[in-house]
Amino acid sequence: MHTSLKTLFDLLKRLEYRLAFIAAGGGVGLFDLFKIPGSGQVMTEAGMLYDPASFARFLDADITWKYVSQQMADRMRQTLVTKANAELCFALTCALVSDRKRRSPDQAYLSIALEEQPVHHHFLIPKGNREEQDRFVTGSVCERIIEYLGQVS
Fold this sequence. Notes:
Layout: H1 3-15, E1 19-24, E2 43-49, H2 52-59, H3 70-83, E3 88-95, E4 107-114, E5 117-124, H4 130-152
Parallel strand pairs: 1-2, 1-3
Antiparallel strand pairs: 3-4, 4-5
């Protein structure tokens, strides 16, 4: 388990914030939050979108923008905020190493909101295998959220 996951969990518990998140294309390491004893006190829900139909169902919309973009991360977060019972919501959309040909770099977009104050982050993901890249994304997301919570608490 990434050490920043436990740090994030402890901070959320101390602040008495409940968390919901939605991820797409990467960030599976974030689901390790559910492995921490007492996670039910902090986590309300989490989801993973992976194909165009899942995006359309979750967003209840036809997708007319790029799947890995700040616009998509923002839209995913906005939708999650309306569905989740959590003080802190975030959405992540990633393009990790793949066997498909892509023109864009390996990257991720993050959209975080606490009481509708959105913050955005864009990550360029270092070369590596999918597991290494996912570990990088998991750590980067946790670090950004910890930093964000430090600014608002």
